[in-house]
Design brief:
The chain is of the alpha/beta class and 335 residues long. The chain contains 14 helices and nine strands. It folds into two domains: 223 residues, Spore Coat Polysaccharide Biosynthesis Protein SpsA, Chain A (Alpha-Beta Complex); 93 residues, no CATH class. 47% of the residues lie in helices and 17% in strands. Strands 1, 2, 3, 4, 5, 6, 7, 8 and 9 form a nine-stranded mixed sheet that branches. Strand 2, helix 3 and strand 3 form a beta-alpha-beta unit. Helix 11 packs across helix 13. The radius of gyration is 21 Å and the shape is globular.
């Protein structure tokens, strides 16, 4: 690690701001905060900001005793609004996010400090996760790990290929695995305040929206991701009516966020990619609702076929993949 005294001379304390957000849930928040307090990084190098929409004497007293900044936003509207409030309050040059039901590995902030100090053009960092259940036992990972250092323009060229094989997780899944350089996003807070889902996508795609930004994807599992049945968890395997309604709400919010990104992202290649992603989210919503109006108005089948990407593998492999996807589409759209 660099000599902290150099930072003192330049009045750059704290260097990292950690924003912890909690909406309604109380049971996990103390563990999330403690995971940030118990870092190997010198405490003078980072600050903690907790943003929640409730009051709780035990939690509030703990926050006060630990000299943690806190905002109670009881007029909560969107998750993006809470994140924007936190960013506006931050003193750090780098921001790390943490959801109330996740935790940091004890060396996470030290790792982030060293990387952002080393790479002055680093705008976005994403680390892998340990997936755990409510008993804190390891559970099956939702996504594979991924590692790479990319300039934004190079990553855009490879985006379809990477996501086709590794799905979304290695790039931007989980806000608690994302760190950003604050100054790059200050002029985008107005847009962030409109976001009520996928804030992780927001930071990822805006990091790509200008050439020569540096993005690092780390395969070190520096975040503990809690797999549990909550409103925000789309990976629930049950199929009860309550879960179906949750998924319908979640997909509608995904679609709204993707439309906001499409309307505001400048890079044409990213817009095209997001349009295909929007089509996928609309298909997922259709699979839950069987809404024929949704299918017709958004030309779901035609746009899905246009968006299918087979950039890797020999001719036989690509054709097999195409046939499998077409059968999947037929199964989804059959009456």
């Amino acid at each position: 690690m660099e000599d902290p005294s150099k930072d003192k001379n330049n009045n750059k304390f704290p260097y990292i701001s950690v924003i912890i957000t909690a909406h309604d849930r109380k049971q996990f928040l103390m563990d999330a905060i403690k995971s940030v307090l118990n870092q190997t990084l010198d405490k003078s190098l980072y600050e903690i900001i907790v943003i929640k929409n409730f009051k709780d004497d035990m939690i509030d007293n703990f926050i006060k005793n630990e000299n943690i900044k806190s905002i109670t936003n009881e007029n909560y509207t969107f998750i993006g609004e809470d994140l924007a409030l936190g960013i506006e309050m931050c003193k750090g040059e780098v921001i790390s996010f943490l959801d109330d039901d996740d935790q940091f590995h004890k060396v996470k902030l030290e790792n982030i400090y060293n990387l952002f100090k080393k790479y002055k053009d680093l705008v976005y960092y994403h680390n892998y996760q340990n997936f755990i259940n409510e008993n804190e036992s390891n559970t099956k990972p939702i996504f594979k790990s991924f590692k790479g250092i990319y300039k934004s323009n190079d990553l855009i060229k490879n985006l379809k290929k990477i996501i086709h094989y590794d799905y979304y997780g290695p790039l931007f899944f989980n806000m608690s695995s994302i760190s950003i350089r604050k100054d790059y996003f200050l002029d985008k807070l107005k847009i962030l305040k409109m976001i009520n889902s996928h804030p992780d996508d927001f930071f990822f795609f805006y990091s790509l929206d200008y050439e020569n930004n540096l993005l690092i994807f780390d395969d070190k599992p520096l975040t503990f991701y809690l797999v549990h049945e909550s409103y925000s968890n789309i990976y629930i395997k049950k199929s009860s009516q309550d879960v179906i309604l949750k998924k319908e709400r979640i997909y509608n919010e995904y679609i709204k966020t993707t439309n906001i990104l499409i309307s505001n992202i400048k890079n044409d290649a990213l817009k095209k990619f997001l349009l295909c992603r929007l089509n996928k989210e609309q298909i997922q919503l259709y699979a839950v609702t069987k809404n024929e109006k949704l299918k017709k108005e958004n030309k779901l089948i035609r746009n899905r076929i246009k968006c299918i990407n087979y950039v890797k593998g020999n001719l036989i492999t690509r054709n097999i993949r195409l046939i499998k996807d077409l059968f999947l589409l037929l199964n989804i759209f059959k009456k």
